[in-house]
Design brief:
about 0% helix; Pectate Lyase C-like; 6-stranded parallel sheet; 5-stranded parallel sheet; mainly beta
Length: about 190
């Protein structure tokens, strides 16, 4: 077993590679995961509290009934994860990460941060992303529908397709020229 103890506090876990394994009922508090690889790993009933993942690969990970509270991902590949399987996501931060093919559908994850990220083909349908920070992030082919983006920051973000009639955009911040894409869903002519 890769994690023999039930609880890990203020530990650094480096260069660990898990593939097609299950990790059940473990608590990680103030831990640092450095250059780890988790591929097709199933985390069940685990808690990650104030942890950091640096230069890690999390591909097709299943976070079944897990809690992620104040977790930060830096320069990670966090690909193909269905975050809707978690019990709780709160104050998540992704910086310079790839979050392609991820699902945040129907989730309440206000204050989430995705800065300088690549978030291609992700699903944010009916999610609450209010007050989120998405500076300089690429949202190519990502879905926003009935998504609450109130107070969110999309400055420098690109390739997003956000229909202002089918999403909540109160005090949402955008930058020029990308903000022009908000007009695509409207039946208007600009001359």
């Amino acid at each position: 077993m890769s994690f023999p103890k039930d609880t890990y506090i203020q530990e650094t876990i480096a260069n660990l590679s898990l593939s097609d394994e299950s990790v059940k009922s473990r608590t990680f508090e103030e831990c640092i995961f450095d250059t780890c690889s988790f591929i097709n790993t199933k985390f069940v009933n685990c808690k990650f509290i104030t942890c950091k993942f640096n230069d890690c690969i999390l591909s097709a990970v299943v976070p079944m009934n897990c809690r992620f509270i104040e977790v930060e991902f830096n320069r990670c590949k966090v690909i193909g994860i269905d975050w809707t399987k978690t019990e709780l996501l709160r104050e998540m931060a992704f910086k310079d990460c790839q979050l392609n093919y991820s699902s945040f559908r129907l989730m309440k994850i206000s204050l989430i941060t995705m800065i300088d990220c690549e978030v291609k083909d992700a699903d944010f349908t009916e999610a609450d992303l209010s007050k989120g920070d998405f500076k300089n992030t690429d949202f190519e082919k990502s879905r926003f529908f009935k998504t609450n983006l109130s107070g969110a920051n999309f400055k420098g973000a690109r390739n997003y397709a956000i229909d202002p009639l089918n999403n909540t955009l109160k005090k949402t911040r955008f930058s020029y020229p990308e903000v022009q894409t908000l007009l695509q869903g409207l039946d208007i002519i600009i001359e």
